[in-house]
Structures are given as C-alpha cells and as structure tokens.
Specification:
- The structure holds 2 protein chains of 2 kinds.
- Chain A is built from 8 helices and 20 strands.
- Chain A is of the alpha+beta class.
- In chain A, strands 12, 14, 15, 16, 18, 19 and 20 form a 7-stranded mixed beta sheet that branches. In chain A, strands 5-6-7-3-8-9 form a 6-stranded mixed beta sheet, sandwiched between helices.
- In chain A, α3 crosses α4 and α3 packs across α5.
- The two termini of chain A are 49 Å apart.
- By secondary structure, chain B is mainly alpha-helical.
- Helices cover 70% and strands 1% of the residues of chain B.
- The chains are: A alpha+beta, B mainly alpha.
- The interface between A and B is large, with 49 and 40 residues.
C-alpha cells in the first residue's frame, strides 16, 4: 500500500471577532514584519482552541501540528465534537483554504463533497446542472457525457431532468447533486456530513455507494460524521480530533471508544458518592455499568454477543415495596424499551429491608441495532407507580455490527434501518418452476 | 522500505504559494468549466425574460439616444465631425466591454464566496469566464454598431470610412479585456477584506468614463484644455477607444507612443492583478 496523503505539522489559525475593522493597520504591521524577515506578530500565541473558554488573543488555532499519513484504499473517519477542527481539516485537504503553517502532500485527484449541489444554478435545468456541477467538481465534459445516464439513473429524477432545478423539491435537488458527485473518478474522495440529508432510502444508497468506492474500487475516502454507526461500517480507521489537536489515529473501534468515553463523556461504568447519588430517602443508586460475559467492562460491544447491564443500589428504609429497572434509549434519543425485574426473588414490588442490592439484566446478542445505546438505571415501585431513584443516561455502550455475514445484516453493507436488529429464523423453499 | 519511490506527490499544499505560480496547467485542465460557466451566464441572462437576448441591444441603444440628446444637442460637445449616434455608440460599445469586465470581475470573490468555500477549482477560471461571456455581449453590440453604420452609409451624405487602424482591432479587444480583468482582480482581491471598494467601484467606473474619450473626442480636449490633456491621454482606455474609432470611423487621435504606454500600463496592471488574485485566492474563505 502506498501513501496518498501526508500531512506534516499542519496548522490553521483563524482570526476571531470582526474582520474588516482595524485590519488595515494590522495588515500593514504584518506586512512590515514580513519585510523585515520577522515572524508574523499575530500568530505567536499558541492557545488551545476551546470554544467555551475565553482566550487572551483573538487568533485561534483551529488545527495544531497535525501529522498523519493515509494509505491508498483506506476509508478514514474523522470524528470529534463540534469545533474540534474536522471541517477545517477537510477544507484544507480539499484545497478550499490554505494551511497557516505546515504542509500536506497529496497523490492523485481529490474530489470533495463538503456540500451537495455546490454551484447549482436555480435557473438551469437538471441536465445543464449535471454538466455544470460535474465540471466544477473537476470532470471533463466528455466524462460527464459518458456517465450522464448513470448519473440520472442513480439520482432517480429522470422525469425532471429538463426542468429548472428551482422547481425541484429539496430532496430531488440533493439526490441529483449527490449523484453527480458519486460518479467522480477521483483517487481521493472527501465527504462531509452531507448524508444527513435526503430520505432514508437515498441515504442508504449513498452509504452503499461510498462503501463501494473504498472497498471495491480501492479509492481513498475521508468521511466526517457524527453518525458513529456509519463511521464504524464505512471506515477501517479513524482520526479523533479534539480542540484542533489530533488525539488518536487508529482502527475505528478504538478511536470511537475513546471518543465516546472522553468527548461525549459517556462511560460504560458510572458510580456515585454518598452525596451525589441519585435517589430519594427510600433508595439511591450507587453504581451502574455494562459488562460482557466474563465480567469485564464492555463499552464497544459486538452485535452478536450478549450484554450484561448491572446496577448497585441502596435501600435506605425498611418495608417499602420496590424493584429495579433499566430504561434504554438509542443515540437519537428514541426510547427503545424499559425492563424491570419480573423473575427473581426481588421482582416487582417485593418488600425490602434496608441494605445494598445488585441487579443484572442480561440482554442476548442479536437484539440491539448498531450505534450508541444509553442506559438509565432506576429504582421504582410499580403499583402504584413511584420513582425512587433515576440516573438518566448514566451509562452508555456502543454496538458494532459485524461484517462477517452471521449477524442480521448478513452480507449487506449499506445502511440497515430499524431500531432493533434481531436475528430470526426463516423457512423458505422452492415451490415450482 | 520502498519509501523513496513513494515520494512523488501530485499536489503539495503549503502556506505560501510561489508569487508567479499561476497554475495555468490547472486552468487548462478545467477549460470545460470555463465554457460551461459562459453558457450558464448566457442562458441564465435571458431565462424568464420576454425579450431575451434583445436586452443586449437595448441598453447601449438607449444610452446612445440619451447621449446624443444631452451631450450632443444640449451641451453641443463636438464629435470629430462624425454623426453623433455613431460616435457615441462606438465609445459606448468599447467602454461597456471594459467596464463590464471590470465590475463583474471586481465582485468575483464576494459573489462566489459560497462556491469557492466548498470546492476547489482554479479560481482564475471565473474571471476568465466573465471576460469571455462579456465578449459575446460585446459581439452582439458590435453587430448593432455595424447595422447603424450600414444605415448611415445607405442614407449617404456623411463622411466616415474604416482605416488601416482597423487591423489593430483584435489587439484593442485584448487590451480592453486585460485591463478590465487586471483592474477587476486587484479590486476583487481587496474587497474580500475591505468592502469599501465595492462602493467605490460603482461610481468610480462612471467617473472614469468621463476621464475617457467616450462622450468627447481627444482632439477637443487637446484644443481646449491643453493643461489637463495628460489626464485623459494617459488614461490607458483613451488610446484604445480613440484607436477603435479611428479604425471603424476614420476619426480619432492616437499615436504609437500613446498606445504603447497604454499597453505597458495594461500589462503591468494585469500582472499585479494576477499576483494579488493568486495570493488572496488561497485564504480568502477565512476573511470574506
């Protein structure tokens, strides 16, 4: 494998605040410094870019000293919180803006999709826009002509191809735009979170296409997304950015684990002290965690393997009827299901003595859909209903689907919809010819 | 390791580009885009209009009528003995080409900020496409000029005739394009930071027109205001328009020297324009 992208000491500084007022004197100062061969007076301060903390200078480093290499055929996910520098990095790589210091070397053509429909002209027809947009993205006219039918076919807007795009629905617009970009013949493809648009069916198509691009066509893909599910499936490696600094470049699973635990502050285990433990005078939760069958913390789970969710809680007064429960949400905040104890000695509404209890819920493999699952432990009385202790989204884990063909998705590699992903048995037979 | 053979890179992104690295190879690779942008400008110009491309005629036609009335009849400014409408139309046609190139180019960065902020292509393509689209417009207006010329010839009784200077026409056209492009690029590069220039350009172009021999001939300035004559004569557009009139209508005052100076100024402005444009192009997204 050969390297196709190599970044050395890559940094990018932005000026904060108003641009245009007082910049003339600043520019002159800068120019004068350069004439005398001195360093730029406004770039000296190297602060970490944390947007919530007020800094002392009005220059901010959106990226700082990035060093990385990307090999041909890699699909690299770039993840990080908002403002971590993901978009800045893509902008530099797609040559929209130049680095402040350092350099990037690139082998081959780069096609960047920072936005779909760049350069579409509302007055022109779909057909005209395919040519215009293709040319803007770097295609030759002959190339577009050759792929025209394929593009129209992929977009699914055949009927409207001779209508001005201003009459298009926003969905059609996006479809057409992505279709053009997807047919670019470039060695490197850079994709920002453009897939957040369009309907589910089309998103599926886009992800499938991107998967093809990297796995079968051997092209390099850089993909920025907050959708960890898409990143895990599409990307074999990932880069984690935090405040403009490259924290980690590794295989996707390790990077996502790091991201979820440190950036999104969602851990697979959480415990509370006596003072901050959630609860009332009857019960309080002491700790909660996600484990595998061996009892190890399990933050990045295999979709096929069971998950054990465990909580420890303290009952503070004698004689109350209560039980323990868990509430599950997915990463979009959709409540997946609740579960409370119905089969052990401590099931629904048993009268409790003071003391510390533990409870484990065993969830079989091939049940959750992929993505982040947030778990809220609770102590309740179910009839009449009363909530004693509740720790909202206290712990979380990340379910990763397998590509081995033995999970519910089988051989399919695109975006697999649905909030759960059970593996069921089928009966099927050949009936007649 | 095989790393040594690996060190052949196609693109290298660095903070500062070489001053005269004009990326002409890139521009050539994107030539289809230039054609498509010209087509876009042309098509979107008359979409949803009734008169369509006729609009290309209307503006110079009415300007000529007004000028004939105001400057010709009311103010009585001499026109080198040429029929007034022809005299003005010649000036307007040439001037329009220059000023359209200038004003359109001067907003390239601000008008295309959205596009430039999302995708890379050699930015020079856009100003070049402006020059070419305006050329089409210019061609249409020139056609109208010919029609009116023919009208006068058929009617007879007026004295004008094309001269050998007509051979200079392609060169004049190139000069106008270069000047408009160069000046426009300097201004466009600066407007990314200082928006003041957008306001300046609007009336600046109008003022500049009065310093150019659009509504009066150079000969009149020479005769009446010998003291300020240099102001008009060294304006690089003046020799171009004078030569244009001389070529088509046989009246106009220019020398090899004045046209030579104009050429040198134009080349210098274009060079400065391209250099500044290339510098700004790299980072303007951050400041626009």
């Amino acid at each position: 494998m050969s390297k196709v992208i190599k970044a050395e000491n890559l940094s990018k500084a932005y000026q904060l605040g108003e641009i245009g007022t007082g910049t003339l004197s600043r520019d002159l100062e800068r120019f004068w410094a350069r004439v005398r061969g001195k360093e730029d007076p406004f770039l000296k301060i190297g602060e970490v870019n944390d947007r919530s903390v007020k800094g002392t200078s009005d220059i901010v480093w959106s990226l700082q000293n990035l060093n990385f290499e990307i090999e041909q055929g890699d699909a690299v996910g770039i993840i990080g919180l908002n403002g971590a520098g993901k978009s800045t990095l893509l902008k530099i790589l797609s040559r929209v803006t130049a680095p402040t210091t350092g350099s990037v070397k690139i082998k081959g053509r780069v096609a960047s999709l920072l936005e779909v429909g760049t350069g579409f002209h509302p007055e022109l027809t779909g057909r005209e826009n395919i040519f215009l947009n293709g040319a803007i993205l770097g295609m030759r006219k002959a190339e577009i002509k050759r792929k025209f039918d394929e593009i129209v076919d992929f977009s699914g807007v055949e009927r409207y191809v001779d209508t001005p795009v201003k009459r298009y629905s926003s969905g059609m617009y996006v479809r057409l735009a992505f279709a053009v970009a997807a047919h670019l013949e470039s060695e490197i493809m850079i994709v920002d979170e453009v897939l957040a648009v369009g309907d589910a069916e089309f998103q599926k198509k886009c992800l499938g296409k991107m998967n093809d691009v990297s796995t079968t066509e051997g092209r390099t893909v850089l993909f920025v997304s907050h959708n960890m599910g898409a990143v895990t499936r599409l990307c074999n490696s990932a880069m984690l950015l935090r405040n403009g600094i490259l924290i980690q470049q590794d295989i996707t699973s390790r990077v996502i684990t790091n991201y979820l635990s440190t950036d999104e502050l969602s851990a697979a285990f959480n415990e509370w002290t006596e003072n901050d433990a959630p609860g009332n005078q009857i019960a309080r939760i002491l700790s909660a965690g996600v484990f595998n069958e061996n009892g190890d913390l399990y933050e990045y789970t295999d979709i096929r393997k069971p998950v054990i969710v465990k909580m420890e809680y303290e009952v503070l007064s004698d004689g109350t009827k209560l039980t323990h429960a868990f509430v599950f949400h997915n990463e979009h905040g959709l409540r997946l299901f609740d579960s409370h104890d119905v089969n052990t000695k401590w099931k629904s509404n048993t009268v409790r003595k003071k003391g510390i209890y533990t409870a484990e819920l065993i969830i079989p493999g091939n049940f959750f859909s992929e993505g982040k699952i947030k778990v809220s432990p609770a102590v309740i009385t179910s009839d009449p209903w009363e909530l004693h202790a509740y720790a909202e989204d206290a712990i979380a884990f990340f379910v990763r689907d397998s590509q081995d063909g033995d999970s519910a998705r089988g051989e399919f590699s695109g975006n697999y919809a649905g909030v759960v992903r059970p593996l069921f048995n089928w009966r099927s037979q050949f009936v007649s010819k | 390791m095989g790393d040594l053979t690996d060190e052949r890179w196609d693109i290298e992104l660095t903070p500062h580009a070489h001053l005269f690295d004009l990326k002409l190879k890139d521009v050539w690779r994107y030539r289809d885009l230039l054609v498509l942008l010209v087509r876009r400008d042309f098509v979107s110009f008359y979409k949803q209009t009734i008169l369509g491309p006729l609009w290309f005629f209307i503006q110079p036609l009415f300007t000529t009528i007004i000028y004939t009335f105001v400057f010709g009849s009311l103010a009585g400014i001499p026109t080198d003995g040429l029929p007034q409408p022809l005299f003005y139309l010649a000036g307007i046609t040439a001037w329009n080409y220059f000023s359209d190139c200038l004003t359109k180019t001067s907003t390239v960065f601000t008008a295309n900020a959205g596009l430039f902020g999302k995708v890379y292509f050699p930015r020079l393509i856009v100003p070049l496409s402006i020059v070419v689209s305006n050329l089409i417009r210019f061609g249409v207006q020139l056609l109208m000029f010919f029609i009116i010329m023919a009208g006068y010839l058929i009617k007879g009784g007026v004295s004008f005739h094309p001269t050998v200077s007509l051979l200079l026409f392609p060169f004049l056209l190139l000069l106008m394009a270069m000047l408009g492009l160069g000046l426009g690029m300097v201004i466009s590069a600066m407007t990314t930071k200082y928006r003041d220039l957008t306001f300046l350009i609007n009336f600046g172009v109008q003022l500049l027109m009065y310093l150019t021999t659009v509504i009066y001939p150079l000969s009149t300035v020479k005769a009446r205001y010998p003291k300020y004559e240099w102001l008009v004569e060294y304006n690089p557009m003046t020799p171009i328009i004078e030569a244009f009139r001389q070529g088509f209508l046989g009246k106009g005052t220019f020398t090899a020297t004045s046209l030579g100076i104009s050429t040198i100024i134009t080349a210098a402005i274009l060079l400065i324009g391209i250099v500044i444009f290339n510098r700004v192009e790299r980072n303007f997204v951050d400041t626009v």
